[in-house]
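Class, study these two lines:
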Amino acid sequence: MLRLNVIVASTRPGRVGESVASWFHDFAREHSRFDVHWTDLADFALPVFDEPNHPRQQDYQHEHTKRWAESVDAADAYVFVTPEYNFGPTPALVNALNYVYHEWSYKPAAFVSYGGNSGGIRAVQTTKLTLTTLKVMPLIEQVTIPMVAQQVDNGRFAANEQQEKSAGAMLDELVRWAKALKPMREN
């Protein structure tokens, strides 16, 4: 079975990302076409990039980098659960993307984005530029959650029908792309 890492991209205290990611993680498990793994950037505690060698060399010196590289490498696909900070991605996400290189290659990625009026779509568009440089195939199918606070009650996110429909379509496409790119990952 293909492995999907659901990556919580916000690390700040009081974040709403955990509740959104928890909903999506459960939804993806019920979808049952992936072996779904919870991947919280906060758990990795990556400092600002501190490896002495370029990530392409894969000569990692720090234990936090080795753990992160192993997690990224193990996945066949990714879903980034991300807010928007100042029209862009979270610093934690940009840092995590830049920590490794080959481990990302030839895998698809999609987004569950949230925020205010924009629902995080500007952050998604900016992140896609970095992903393509890492040889990741970002999909157009995504889940967008504008005005996310209106859907969180007592720390639990409740998706609406459209968001659930979007999540299903996104997961179906992720499966197709993960299977299609698998031969490239094996070479």
About this structure: Helices lie at 17-31, 41-44, 63-74, 91-99, 121-133, 161-186.
